[in-house]
Automatic annotation (TrEMBL):
Belongs to the SorC transcriptional regulatory family. The keyword Mitochondrion does not apply. This is Deoxyribonucleoside regulator. Residues 59-308 form the Sugar-binding domain. Pfam families: MarR_2, Sugar-bind. Keywords: DNA-binding, Transcription, Transcription regulation. The keyword DNA-binding applies. Residues 16-52 form the HTH marR-type domain. The gene is deoR. GO terms for molecular function: carbohydrate binding; DNA binding; DNA-binding transcription factor activity.
Length: 311
């Protein structure tokens, strides 16, 4: 049975919680004092009229990690939760950096891709007192447009953090012809760096979605016809090698002109850290994981759920 005090408490609670008025505004609206408003709100809680529920995805992260590790045979997975209005890229970068700091040791060779996600990882790496570390660029990074790959800054960020020697590929990632690419790769310095990239201890990379606005499709490497072909066939790219829904090379004629680590060479690396997130990359991430290209994963909570449920 609701009495007069219950009824007044309900009125106060609705104005405060549903209409988002302050306690002072509620007091003025109902012609009562502010202390009375506070007491009535407490009464509403005590009577069970008001129930506050906080849905914190972090409470479910452990289960997500377990599912990701089991389904994709991962050595480790890190799931980040970005609050509304937060910066997903920075959160992924911070988590990716924290994981790498556990995996890189004295004498390690680290292969690094480029892109916004890799740039964020580099920004969050702390300087560690390591010795004998080598940082190797896994693919060419020169751009033919105003869009920057941030490849040099990313490589330097890794080098500073790990006190490492750097090995950079000062080349476009996709050449105009396979013949030119093959000719350039015969240079002994270039061949040495490509070979080093294929034998790194730790490879850290991201996944790009095959979308019109993606960085890989806007660096001036491709004709409009080639871009359209990629959009029709591919779901994403790893190290600028585009793959289809089955994890196979999507456009062989473009892949033959691409400078950088191959899928097979990447899959053979002992430690392969994938840092990627965002709903637009869901399909691409799922294919990469199913293909076994990653041993370690850093991903956001929402995308992890989508990858697991197939949404």
């Amino acid at each position: 049975m609701i009495d007069a005090r219950d009824s007044q408490a309900l009125d106060v609670a609705k104005l405060y919680y549903n209409s988002h008025l302050s306690q002072a505004e509620v007091a003025k609206c109902l012609g009562i004092s502010r202390p009375t408003v506070s007491k009535l709100l407490q009464h509403a809680h005590d009577q069970g009229f008001v129930v506050i529920s906080i849905n914190d995805p972090r409470e479910h992260s452990d289960e997500l990690v377990r599912e990701l590790k089991e389904r994709f045979a991962l050595a480790d997975a890190r799931v980040v939760t970005t609050p509304r209005g937060g910066n997903l890229m920075q959160d992924l970068g911070a988590a990716g950096a924290a994981l790498l700091e556990e995996l890189v040791h004295d004498g390690s060779s680290v292969g690094v891709s480029w892109g916004q996600t890799m740039s964020a990882v580099a920004e969050h790496l702390r300087q560690l007192p390591l010795e004998g570390v080598k940082v190797v660029q896994l693919k060419g990074g020169h751009s033919h447009t105003q869009r920057s790959t941030k490849d040099f800054a990313t490589l330097q960020g890794f080098a500073r953090a790990f006190n490492a020697e750097t090995f950079m590929l000062p080349l476009p990632v996709i050449f105009d012809s396979a013949e030119t690419k093959q000719w350039v790769e015969k240079d002994r310095h270039i061949a040495h760096i490509v070979e080093m990239g294929s034998h790194v201890d730790v490879a850290v990379f991201t996944v790009g979605a095959a979308a019109r606005e993606s960085l890989a499709l806007n660096l001036g490497y491709l004709s409009e016809e080639e871009t359209q072909l990629i959009l029709e066939r591919a779901v994403g790219d790893v190290c600028s090698r585009f793959f289809d829904a089955e994890g196979c090379v999507a456009v062989p004629e473009v892949d033959a002109r691409t400078v950088g680590i191959t899928f097979d060479a990447l899959a053979a690396r002992p430690t392969r850290v994938l840092v990627a997130g965002g709903s637009e990359k869901t399909d691409a991430i799922r294919v990469v994981l199913e293909k076994g290209l990653a041993t370690h994963l850093v991903i956001d909570h929402n995308t992890a759920q989508r990858v697991l449920t197939g949404v």
